[in-house]
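Subject: RDD family protein structure
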Amino acid sequence: MSDISSPEITNSDLDRNEQQEVDEIYKESIINQVYAGFGIRFVSFVIDCLIISGFQGLVFKPIYHATHIDEVKLWINYFSIDHLITALVFYLYFVLMTKYFKQTLGKMICNIRVERVDRADLKWSDILFREWIGRIISGVCFNLPYLVVLFTPKHRGIHDYFANTVVIRNKFASVFYLKK
């Protein structure tokens, strides 16, 4: 019997094609690691909501109990003092924390943060579109626009597209800042 061995591949084009395929797979896996997905972002949001709720319970509930100001309504029940203060605290929390720390307390706990796609510093307009207008639009649409995060390549939500932002994992920040 003769010794059968596989022929050596000498075609450099085949090697390049294989290398490009491997590079694409590697790049895709890195992207999946750098950008925070729906699950971790959802956990972060739940933590933030618990923090806001706890803050309001500690600060505003005693005031409401003593003054009954939460029962005052402007035109309709939705425009009660309680609803207005709750909304104000909610949006201020997200806007101010994102502006000054690039992350809320929930994001800090989950080790993720908000960055601009072009890697520049966050501007007030970016933050207001992302954290205020984007959240209002998502809320009006029963929070369904948040599900877009599941299907976009860099796990960007509608509010991220409005503001030209992404949410990254802190441990991969150096990879995110590498030149394109």
